[in-house]
Amino acid sequence: MQLKFLPSFVKRRGRITKKQESSLKLLPNYSVSKIDEIYSESKKYKMCNLEIGFGNAENLIYEAINNPSILFIGSEVYLSGIGTLISNIKEKQIQNIRIFPEDIRLLFDQEEKIIFNGIKIICPDPWPKDRHRKRRLIDEFFLNMIHKFMKDKAQLYISTDWENYAHQISCAFNKIDFFNKSNKNLINKIELTKFEKRAINEGRKIFEFTYEKNLNSEELL
Ligand SMILES: C[S@@+](CC[C@H](N)C(=O)[O-])C[C@H]1O[C@@H](n2cnc3c(N)ncnc32)[C@H](O)[C@@H]1O
Known about the structure:
The protein is of the alpha/beta class. It has a 7-stranded mixed β-sheet, sandwiched between helices. It has helices at residues 18-24, 27-30, 35-42, 58-66, 79-91, 105-108, 140-147, 163-174, 194-201, and strands spanning 47-52, 70-75, 97-100, 116-122, 150-160, 179-181, 207-213. The chain has a single domain (18-220), classed as Rossmann fold, CATH 3.40.50.150. It is globular. The two termini are 33 Å apart. Strand 2 (70-75), helix 5 and strand 3 form a beta-alpha-beta unit. The protein binds S-adenosylmethionine (SAM).
């Protein structure tokens, strides 16, 4: 089968606990697959934010609990992370999270709809080896893809703990006109995710990018 996008992740089942396994059976109750579904759900909330590659979902859960008037869409392909998220949704009775359990580019490949007030990508897979660089998620093509689904002045937050990925992200932002640098203090997020903690323990620094979509940037296309 020909893949539409070069995988930006290693699709691993991971070790799935019994609890995650039974939570995963409930995935259809929480999942969304079509952009239209997200669009109509988002109309019931004040705002709609997306987190791409939520991992163990600690940031998504933290943000959803603290902002019940915002709808959070979480995208992840890692099954044990999705199971952990569903267990938390049930235990903490969280109402405002929906899951897109696939490569996020399959969502952005659908009909364009302006939905998101914010998008976060915390520590995307770094693909540090030279021969794997083309698998990195964030490049000019990806920024071009996502901005079409963001509202004017929507916030975009990206972090990475790999210096040469940070350089690549910075170059991608320099090549496009539809995002402006924005104030980091506008970003609401958990202090550190699992991958951010690991990076710091291993002596790496976290590079952060906070941008805002330009007003009327569609006209620049
Ligand atoms: C390095 S982990 C970081 C997880 C979490 N954000 C954290 O900071 O702990 C990157 C995650 O992004 C997910 N991912 C990578 N490419 C993705 C894509 N195209 N769509 C959705 N998730 C993706 C991976 O499955 C992985 O769990």
